[in-house]
Design goal:
2 domains, mainly alpha, about 0% strand, 4 helices
Length: about 70
């Protein structure tokens, strides 16, 4: 039983990953996609001030905000 779980994991995980990317792409193609787009994090007033205040903060802060937004 243990071996069958392991043999199913990789195809199921690959299928889930492909399905998730496909859904993201499809959501970008619908007429309401503009409502689903988050825009640029660095255009927010607080984020742009932090990016200017932190040395090299543009890339780092953008990455942290992006990952934090997904969580």
């Amino acid at each position: 039983m243990q071996a069958s779980h392991r043999s199913c994991f990789l195809p199921l995980m690959a299928g889930l990953t492909v399905t998730a990317w496909l859904m993201l792409w499809l959501c970008g193609q619908i007429p309401y996609a503009r409502y689903l787009h988050h825009g640029k994090w660095t255009e927010l007033a607080i984020a742009s001030r932090l990016c200017r205040a932190l040395q090299g903060g543009g890339e780092t802060l953008t990455g942290v905000l992006f990952v934090g937004g997904w969580f």
